Amino acid sequence: NCYEDIDHAEVIFIAGANTAYAHPILFRRIEDAKRANPHLQLIVADPRRTETAEVADLHLPLQPGTDVALFHAMLH
């Protein structure tokens, strides 16, 4: 995916990653996109309450090991 895709996204889904810490440049682009488009939704699926989860519109604090069940549900 290109960084420019973030500027056109309606929803960004991050699973099991603290993007704010591990990918700060990407995270800043996400923050900029949210400022430019207040309707952009950020969804974070992570058992930890990370900095990324703190700014999410929806934080799904999954139990460790249950992410596969979430992904299967999303496919149906």
From TrEMBL:
Gene3D superfamilies: Dimethylsulfoxide Reductase, domain 2
Gene Ontology CC terms: cell envelope
InterPro entries attached to this UniProt entry: Mopterin_OxRdtase
UniProt keywords, alphabetically: 4Fe-4S, Iron, Iron-sulfur, Metal-binding, Oxidoreductase
Main location, first listed in the record: other
MF-aspect GO terms: 4 iron, 4 sulfur cluster binding; electron transfer activity; molybdenum ion binding; oxidoreductase activity
Domain Molybdopterin oxidoreductase: start-end pairs: 4-76
UniProt protein name: Molybdopterin-dependent oxidoreductase
Species of the source: Streptococcus pneumoniae
Classification lineage: Bacteria, Bacillati, Bacillota, Bacilli, Lactobacillales
